[in-house]
Design goal:
With 316 residues, this protein is an alpha+beta fold. Helices cover 39% and strands 14% of the residues. It has two domains: 86 residues, Double Stranded RNA Binding Domain (2-Layer Sandwich); 143 residues, dinb family like domain (Four Helix Bundle (Hemerythrin (Met), subunit A), Up-down Bundle). Strand 7 and strand 8 form a beta hairpin. The radius of gyration is 19 Å and the shape is globular.
Length: 316
């Protein structure tokens, strides 16, 4: 387990090495005598960042797959796995695409000044509580065949997303502070009202995503978040070796492919990472903390940020 300071340096340096977990390589930060040193030269940008360059080129087009129940709209940016936008209307959701794409690429150490106009390439209507972020859409892209290279890159991205989410949690001091504005019932039960509850939910959901293939792993509460992620990605790797991305798994009236599972890992990290950052912003506005880390580089839009409270406001 990395210390908070080390994780901060890792995410700032973008310096990586590889480790093997069974079949596939996973991208992890490079450490040198307890510190991270950003290196220059041909070997300094590898793994995740090579994928980031491909993603930057891919954003010559921004395709959105939209899911709606008529009350809420949830869009997924096809070229950026796990990137998403939400809104009460389709227009509101689409208006956030450029902001999300810019944040996503910045998370991967890339910069893009301008983007093309987003275009909706797929619309899926459902009866789920989309306004509460429930979703089931199987993207056309989720069903497309994947090469070994594309699969490895997507696995590395899901691995790095998990490292980032874990780093965000480790950087938090007030993990059990209750955000009473979050207390409500959702489609999956009571909403998570503390940062620790959000983290535990994301950790538990890792097992759920693997179960969509019909496989399961023994759950051990002592296993670190990143170990669970790596073990599950390893299992997904074995499935890819057997069938590539050709198999569609129908579980509980929802269709899944391996590519969808990997995309959903990243999406789930991001959507709950944003929730954690909103709570941290509330803590800052209330004066409980002076600053906080945002390793995902969300840079929330004004309409996504926490409600502003007057200085000295009591805990809500």
């Amino acid at each position: 387990m990395y210390s908070r300071l080390l994780l901060e340096e890792i995410l700032e340096s973008k310096s990586f090495s590889y480790f093997h977990n069974g079949t596939y390589k996973f991208c992890v930060p490079r450490r040198s005598v307890g510190t991270v040193k950003a290196t220059k030269g041909k070997n300094s940008i590898v793994g995740v960042l090579s994928l980031a360059r491909d993603l930057r080129r891919a954003t010559d087009s921004l395709s959105v797959a939209m899911e709606t129940n008529g009350k809420g709209f949830h869009g997924f940016i096809v070229e950026l796995p796990g990137a998403f936008v939400r809104g009460g209307t389709e227009q509101e959701a689409v208006s956030k695409v450029h902001w999300e794409a810019r944040s996503y690429l910045k998370w991967l150490g890339q910069k893009r000044i301008s983007f093309p106009k987003p275009r909706i390439v797929q619309t899926h209507r459902c009866t789920l509580m989309v306004e509460d972020a429930d979703c089931e859409i199987l993207l056309v892209d989720d069903k497309r065949p994947m090469s070994e290279q594309e699969f490895r890159s997507l696995v590395e991205l899901a691995s790095f997303s998990g490292l980032t989410f874990n780093a965000l949690f480790d950087s938090v001091r007030l993990k059990d502070w209750v955000d009473e504005a979050r207390i409500r019932t959702t489609f999956y039960g009571q909403n998570k009202k503390t940062i620790r509850e959000i983290f535990e939910h994301v950790n538990q959901t890792q097992y759920y995503y693997l179960s969509r293939t019909g496989l399961s792993l023994r759950e051990d509460e002592a296993d670190p978040f990143t170990k669970v992620r790596a073990n599950i990605l390893d299992e997904v790797g074995f499935l890819f070796r057997e069938n590539g991305n050709s198999k569609t798994y129908a579980i509980d009236s929802e269709e899944w492919t391996l590519k969808k599972i990997l995309r959903r890992f990243i999406w789930h990290d991001r959507i709950h990472g944003k929730a954690i950052v909103r709570i941290l912003e509330k803590q800052r506005q209330l004066g409980f903390i002076q600053r906080y880390q945002d390793p995902f580089k969300f840079e929330m839009r004004p309409d996504e940020s926490a409600t502003t409270y007057p200085p000295g406001s009591p805990l809500k």
